[in-house]
User: What shape does this take?
Amino acid sequence: MRTESWLRGVTPYQWLVLFVAWLGWVFDAMDATIYAIVLHPALHDLLHTADGPPTTEQVGWYGGMIFSIFLIGWAIGGITFGILADRFGRTKVLIATIIIYAVFTGAAALAETWWQLAAFRFLTALGIGGEWAAGAAIVAETWPDDKRAKAAGMLQSAWAVGFFLAAGFNLLLKGYGWRMLFLIGVLPAFVALLVRWWVKEPVRWSHAHDRQAIPLSAIFEGDLRRATLVGSALAFVAVFGLWGSTNWAPTLVREMPEVKGLDSAISSTYVSYAIMALNAGALFGYLGFGPLADRFGRRPVFAFMCLGSFVMLPLTYLTPTSYNGLLVLLPILGFFSNGIFSGFPIYLPELYPTALRATGSGFCFNAGRVLASASPFLTGWLVMTLGSFGRAASTVALIYLLGLVVLVFAPETKGRRLPD
Assistant: This one.
């Protein structure tokens, strides 16, 4: 009955906007995940020399560098396209960013060296970062205020679906090599057509666009300064933890006793099931954040997710002695370390007026990503220093304690109307 009550009053067009933005984020997640899945076999091919295949340490080092370059591109794209979405419109930017990340994911299949792969991943990331800023803004501005948190949680659930999709394609194409998986990443370009045909600019943006454009510096003025600093710091913590630890799960799987040394196609099956397990838990985290935030507030739920991630990372990366043991812990880890991201399409748009909503949200979600881009590189260094992915990822988990400190200064937006 309660579910029916919150759905009452939602128009078909509002559902359409959510679906199109959700679909764009599904493929966004799929294209972002593909590299984590194929990291091991791709770098084994690209780093292979006459002296033999690369070592685990070399895979960790170069893999970390490519992850870091990817995150820098994501940050640049998110900030740049966030500004453009406020200036030229949400739908135009949504179309452009989807095309960018689709085309360059497919182009990665042509890489012949590790640095070419890094370049293609950087360009892919520009579109991935920009798509989030435009999509989060258009959903926040289209849905009613009292239903916005739940809609944003549903939007973020697309990330888990994208992970499942990437893992499913990995299973389906496991005999075709890592290049074919990148080629599949071209498919999202068709979503851009749906945006072009079905979605119009939100009324809120159209009214704000009639006024004079506000410069980026405005998000650091007055009360918005606190919002920007807190939002950026929270995003930094979440991204640092995810890309510095959780997203190394496929590599951790390949190091498990039952998987290590197996043929690449067979080990890909183990990796796919592990990613599905991780994202089964993440899906509950994504969908659960909105209702929990409406009930308890944004700050307490962010704190809950930070604390859970801090505890679960060492448990997941250090305690399992078998693949089956790892499968039990991955969904719980996914609930916390991935589920925290549902808070950002809910919380960040609530901090800014319409004329600065995509700019502010895009900046916060991605400015911290510049600093967080060091996390995969740091993890690669920690692997070489500490000798295993498990010890390295567990060390990175300390970042979530910083998140708990940041939340002391965060404004609570529960029950507030979206600022005009």
Remarks:
- Residues 12-46 form the longest helix (35 residues).
